[in-house]
Every structure is written in C-alpha cells, then in structure tokens.
Amino acid sequence: MRMVDLINKKKEGKALSKDEIEFIVSGYVKGSIPDYQMSAFLMTVYFKGMNRAEISNLTLSYVNSGNTVDLSGIKGIKVDKHSSGGVGDKISLIVIPLVAAVGVPVAKMSGRGMGHTGGTIDKLEAIEGFNTNLDYNTFIDNVNKYKMAITGQTANLTPADKKTYALRDVTGSVDSIPLIASSIMSKKIAAGADAIVLDVKVGSGAFMKSLDNAKELAETMVAIGKALNRKTIAIITNMNEPLGHEIGNANEVREAMEVLKGNGAEDETTVALTIAAYMVLLGGAFKDFDSAYEKLKDIIKSGKAIEKFKEFIKIQGGDTEIIDKPDKLPNSKYHVEIKAKESGYIEAIKADNIGVAAMLLGAGRRTKDDKIDFAAGITVVKKYGDRVNEGDAVFILHTNMGNCTEAKNIVETSFKIGKEKPEAIKYIYEIIK
C-alpha cells in the first residue's frame, strides 16, 4: 500500500477498507507516514466524509494504537458518560454519585480541560487532598466497593488520536464530524466501559452551533458505539447559556453540591437527572426511563445523593468538610459585579464569550502548561428569561488578578436585555438511541 494512493482513493469519494485505515493510522504513529501526507488525508476526509463503517474502523484503529483499560475485574455493567463540552458544565460531578447510589458502577477516566475552565479532574482537584491519580488496583477496588471512582487518563491511551488531533488543530480540519466522532469514541472505548451516555451540547457555548450538526454528530457516535458492541445513547442538550449559575472550578464544585442537596438550578438539575437516568437504565438498574428519573429525584430529596458525594470525596482522599462548609473551597480575592444598564428581561447570553472571560480571569488554560486558579470564575446571577432592573447585578466576576478589564469588557457585551419576557427554552432537545 502507498499513502498517496489512499489519499487519491478518498479524494475520489471511495470508501477505505479496515486494513487501509489501519495502515494509515499505524503508519502515522510509527512515523513512516509524514505530517504532510496525513494532513492531506485529513483534509480529504473533511471534504469527502466517511461512511459509518469507515468511522468505526478509524475509531478502532485509534483504540488499538495504545493501551486499553481492563475493567473486567469490576462486577456489573460499567457505565460512563461524555460531554462534548460547554460553559459551566459540572454534570459529571453530579451524576457519578447519583448513579453509584443506585448500585450501577461508574469507572470514570477523565482529562484536564483546555479553554474556559478545567476538566472534571481539575474541578475535583479544587477539593483539598482529592486524589485524581489512583493506581489501577485502587481504582478497581473503589468501584467494586463503592460503585464509583475517577482517575486521570493514562498517558498511552489512544496516542494516534492525540497525534492526529494536534495535526487537525493546525490544519483547519477540526470541525469534521467523522474525525470528531472517532476521536471522542476512541477514548471512551479504550477506557473500558460497557455502556456510554453522550451529552452532545449545541448552541453558542458549544462546539456544535446548529441542531442539525449536533444531531449528525450524536447519531454518528451512537452508531460507532453500537458497531463496537457498546450500549450507547446520546442526549442533545442546550448550551445557548451557561449551565446553572457557576463557572469556574471551585465554584462548580459548590454548585454541584447544591444540586445534590436539592437546591440546584432547573436547567442543570434537569440535564443531570436525564443523563443519570439513562446511565442507570443502560446499567440495568431500571426497565424504563421514567422510573429511573423519579428514583434519582427521590435519592436527592432523601439526602442520599449528597452523602454519596461525601463518600466519593472520602474514598479519594479529599476534605469531606466542604459538604457542610463549602467556604473551605478556594475563594478569590476580588468580586466584580457586571450590572444591568436598563430594566427588562434577559433575552440572550453569549455563552462562548462568558467562557472566554472565565478563562481570562484564571479559571481555564490558554495552553496545556497554564496553571489554573481554582477560585476564579463567574457567577451568572440572572439567566435567560429572568427579570432585571437597572443597576441589578447580572454577573459577578471572581478573580485573584488585580486587573480584569479585558474579561469585564467581554462580559458587559455578552448579554442582551429586552422589554418582553422571552419564550421558555428547552433544556433537552432530543434523545438518540
């Protein structure tokens, strides 16, 4: 086989075989296929696409390029979830203890975040002492004993995807649904779960801006999961405004605890319960979605959910006093209010801009080597549809930086106030099975 022949084949819109895809991926990882040929191939996929079999084979080649996690030592159906990313997305912090509370094992490997805030691992590290680097045996034992554990991703998980993504990032081929889907699903498959619930976000604060594109991505990933013998469901959720009220690592831990105590905002509570309900459904704990959803609501109401989160913190070495004393979490020095200049109703929030502002305050990373300020972030005081009076605080910026002018200017131009109350929005658009 020659790489140039395969580039030409795909350029003509023809499907590549499993062996041809494996030749490309393994050759690129080994270095026998240079960056310039891989770049040409990726751009050809961008324009010509791939069929479902090709995408599944690309995913499997990514998986086979490195280590996989063996979860066979865990009893029961292991369930995982993935979010395509959004502003204020602390759903994993909520669903891990919720799902574990009904006896479905959650063995989660997660990464650090780039962009507006840290990933789930970064958020949990805002809790003093929380160990996100469990050894394999402890990870397996915790899931068997307590039905939950989280650890950082291993260095050699899907190296072909990491190398390919870096190339996509500098060659303008990031926003290709076949390449996005295979990238996401390869990591989930390699992490060893039996069942996967995908949270595909759509809107101004999400990677997918249109519902049609989000649906195509969701359908593609579900098809990959099923082709590779994983129970898979995708939930398309709204990201036209930040999820909940808090953005930033420690702030999101605080808010996740409020959801688990039954005091959460309606949007994030609805999304978290929906995702958790499908996770326990795939895990075999319930036969229908409605029963699962109601049971999870009862677990929150009874206090079992927040107790399970406390147990989660304890078994991973964290300070459990934050449950009753959330002020023990990092707090910033400065708090700057962004006030309404007129009265009316919040009719639009540019979630992506709010995310950028949070990153500028120190909550996220511009580069992978940047250090996160756990205390930094933004509180969304008024959300879509809320009534505001002139002079009311709409956002509060939290930072340890003496000068936050750039972030302040961004936030001030990232929301719109109208005279009429806008129509209610959906939190969940569609379920793809």
Automatic annotation (TrEMBL):
Main enzyme class: transferase
SUPFAM superfamilies, A to Z: Nucleoside phosphorylase/phosphoribosyltransferase catalytic domain, Nucleoside phosphorylase/phosphoribosyltransferase N-terminal domain, Pyrimidine nucleoside phosphorylase C-terminal domain
InterPro entries, per the entry: Glycosyl_Trfase_fam3 (IPR000312), Glycosyl_Trfase_fam3_N_dom (IPR017459), Glycosyl_Trfase_fam3_N_dom_sf (IPR036320), Nuc_phospho_transferase (IPR035902), PYNP-like_C_sf (IPR036566), PYNP_C (IPR013102), Pyrmidine_PPas_bac/euk (IPR018090), Thymidine/pyrmidine_PPase (IPR000053)
Domain Pyrimidine nucleoside phosphorylase C-terminal span(s) in chain numbering: 345-418
Gene Ontology MF terms: 1,4-alpha-oligoglucan phosphorylase activity; thymidine phosphorylase activity
Catalysis performed (reactions): uridine + phosphate = alpha-D-ribose 1-phosphate + uracil; thymidine + phosphate = 2-deoxy-alpha-D-ribose 1-phosphate + thymine; 2'-deoxyuridine + phosphate = 2-deoxy-alpha-D-ribose 1-phosphate + uracil
Species in which this protein is naturally found: Clostridium pasteurianum BC1
Protein family (similarity comment): Belongs to the thymidine/pyrimidine-nucleoside phosphorylase family.
GO BP annotations, alphabetical order: pyrimidine nucleobase metabolic process; pyrimidine nucleoside metabolic process
Function: Catalyzes phosphorolysis of the pyrimidine nucleosides uridine, thymidine and 2'-deoxyuridine with the formation of the corresponding pyrimidine base and ribose-1-phosphate.
Keywords, comma-separated and alphabetical: Glycosyltransferase, Transferase
GO CC terms in record: cytosol
NCBIfam families hit by this protein: PRK05820.1, PRK06078.1, Y_phosphoryl
EC number: 2.4.2.2
Subunit structure: Homodimer.
Presence of keyword Transferase: yes
This protein's name: Pyrimidine-nucleoside phosphorylase
Pfam annotation, one family: PYNP_C
